[in-house]
Amino acid sequence: MLCDGDAALRLDTQLCFALYSASLAMNKVYRDCLKPLGITYPQYLVLLVLWEQDQRSVSDIGEKLFLDSATLTPLLKRMETAGWVERQRLASDERVVMVGLTEPGRALKRQASAIPAKLLCQSGMAPKQAVALRDELRLLRDHLLR
Question: What is the reported pLDDT for 2?
Fold first, then answer.
């Protein structure tokens, strides 16, 4: 990454590959943690958004998760079929689809409550290190999206 010549194109010097491979590892750990709940990582992210604030529009969820509606809509349909969320069009503006948790969707929150601590433990990082890394990654994301 900060190298000249041939070294600049070595895989182990690439920031993008470090992020990609760390993301793969993180997703594997999450997959193992979420399997007993019967949810996928993208479903977990949607649930996190709704546990924070129930009754959100599809576009609001998409903004929070950096997902477009073409990706989010099939995901929400599967979650609705599973009984975790309900989708409903606003009567005042039928273009807006609202998503809300069902009781089983709310119940998953209790089951998922230990996951963040489990992930932190598995990361081998101290809480302050994890917060600092998260903040650096957010800053990187924001710079790249400008």
Answer: 60
